[in-house]
Design brief:
Strand content of chain B: 15-25%
Helix content of chain B: 40-55%
Order of helices and strands of chain A: EEEHEEEEEHHEHE
Number of strands of chain B: 9
Number of helices of chain A: 4
Strand content of chain A: 25-35%
Helix content of chain A: 25-40%
Oligomer: heterodimer
Structural class of chain B: alpha/beta
Strand order of the largest sheet of chain B: 3-2-1-4-7-6-8
Structural class of chain A: alpha/beta
Distance between the termini of chain B: 52 Å
Shape of chain B: globular
Shape of chain A: globular
Number of strands of chain A: 10
Number of helices of chain B: 10
Order of helices and strands of chain B: EHEHEHEEHEEHHEHEHHH
Strand order of the largest sheet of chain A: 2-3-1-4-8
Largest interface: A-B, 31 and 26 residues
Largest sheet of chain A: 5 strands, mixed
Largest sheet of chain B: 7 strands, mixed
Distance between the termini of chain A: 20 Å
């Protein structure tokens, strides 16, 4: 079993620590991904996440084995307070302790797909297999700038960590929704 | 409209006497691009070092000569290994400079490049940007089902949008360094595994974007003297580095 935990922390230095035979901790910090000239915290987040694919892939080449499970925590906004699932993780499945559920057509109950609503995990804390990690970590900030939009047609109906407020998808959530659809990724709560 | 283009040239360095073809191709791309950055990842062998010492890489944005791994596997393993390394070389440069690319070209170093029309290139790049294409790759030809393998494709040149190139190159780890992968490596099938595992879209660029044609220098020479491109001594030809060596082997067998 090889597990990798990736921490994004713009106040820390980049390092890779082998914790034991099964676990490695990688921190992406401001020395490798500069905070200077970044347009926003979203900009830094996507660039740091993207940078982690360089170090992760080099580790996987060196070990001649991909990590079986990978966990990502953006320490700038979240705490690392969840465990990597013990069950087998299959490709294209993303697990998170924080998920949100959205429904289309907020004003037309008959058209709402309640059986298969849109589920989005928090991009700041999630776990997946290595392949799926690479898919998510390759989301680019330049595409966020291009595609992130507010569409009032998707409304929040459930949040596993907060009381639901009446609102539609944010720009970041819409970008995630669009890209996860492109990449065929599914979110699940743990 | 101007574009940023990245070129990753990677793999076993061969036929680098014909480096001018690459320079001409880059100059051709520059007619429509704001910038063309070139990244090279080649094996650290005698031939690469000799070319390095002769300053034959002076137009590269960044270059690395890779230590040859202790164990080398068959098929396109070496190709994929250098491809992922060239991706990381590009990504490190992008991280340092905060640069993004509209278009990424991944290509072998032993190609004969026939350049087409600037208008065709301009029109392709314009479509790419206007249609906001993402997760797109372009292979030289259609994916073929006609061989004994499940799928078959050329390994000479690949075009991609930036995020697609980022993923495509990572395919090496998920195919060759994952014993649980449902994908199986076979000669000339690896690139198809890479696009399938990441759900990338594929189109043939010889139809969609015919602004350049590519052939191996070795194959072009063999065709030129009316020989098959895969003669019985093809394995012998694959091992040599220069066109003169190819000519000598052909002479020996004729």
């Amino acid at each position: 079993m090889m597990r990798l935990t990736v921490h994004l922390n713009s106040y820390a230095k980049t390092e890779v620590k082998v914790l034991d035979a099964n676990d490695t901790l990688m921190t992406i910090g401001n020395d490798e991904v500069s905070t200077v000239d970044k347009k926003s915290s979203v900009d830094w987040f996507f660039k740091a996440l993207n940078y982690s694919t360089i170090l992760k892939s080099e580790l996987e080449i060196e070990r001649e084995n991909v990590f079986e499970k990978v966990k990502l925590v953006n320490l700038n906004v979240e705490q690392d307070n969840f465990k990597i699932p013990r069950v087998k993780i299959y490709p294209d499945c993303v697990f998170s302790p924080h998920t949100k559920t959205f429904l289309q057509f907020p004003n037309n109950i008959l058209k709402q797909n309640k059986k298969h609503p849109i589920k989005l995990c928090s991009l700041d804390k999630w776990s997946s297999d290595s392949l799926t990690y690479d898919k998510i970590a390759t989301l680019l900030f330049k595409n966020y700038e291009k595609f992130a939009k507010i569409y009032t047609t998707y409304s929040l109906v459930e949040d596993t960590q907060e009381a639901v407020q009446k609102r539609c998808m944010t720009e970041l959530e819409y970008y995630q929704f669009k890209m996860f659809n492109n990449l065929n990724l599914k979110c699940y709560e743990i | 409209m101007k574009y940023n283009i990245a070129i990753q040239i990677f793999g076993q360095l061969r036929m680098w006497e014909n480096v001018d073809q690459y320079k001409n191709f880059i100059n051709f791309l520059r007619t429509q691009a704001e910038s063309v950055d070139v990244f090279g990842s080649f094996w650290d062998d005698e031939y690469s070092r000799a070319n390095y010492n002769d300053d034959k890489f002076n137009f590269f944005t960044d270059l690395e000569l890779l230590p040859i791994p202790k164990v080398i596997y068959q098929g396109l393993w070496r190709w994929g290994y250098c491809l992922i390394k060239s991706r990381n070389l590009r990504k490190k440069y992008q991280n340092r400079t905060d640069k993004t690319y509209d278009f990424v070209i991944m290509m072998r170093p032993d190609l004969r490049i026939k350049i087409g029309e600037e208008k065709t290139l301009g029109s392709f790049l314009s479509t790419l940007k206007n249609k906001q294409m993402i997760y797109r790759t372009w292979f030289q030809k259609e994916i073929s089902n006609s061989s004994v393998k499940p799928f078959d494709v050329d390994d000479k040149v690949f075009y991609a949008t930036e995020e697609s190139a980022d993923l495509f190159c990572l395919g090496f780890n998920h195919l060759h360094n994952n014993t649980e992968s449902p994908f199986h490596s076979a000669y000339h099938t690896d690139p198809i595994c890479y696009v399938k595992m990441f759900n990338l879209l594929v189109s043939p660029f010889n139809i969609i974007a015919p602004f350049a044609n590519f052939d191996l220098i070795r194959h072009h020479y063999l065709k030129d003297i009316k020989l098959t491109t895969e003669p019985q001594y093809d394995e012998e030809l694959k091992k040599v580095k220069t066109l003169d060596e190819v000519k000598n082997i052909v002479k020996k067998h004729l």
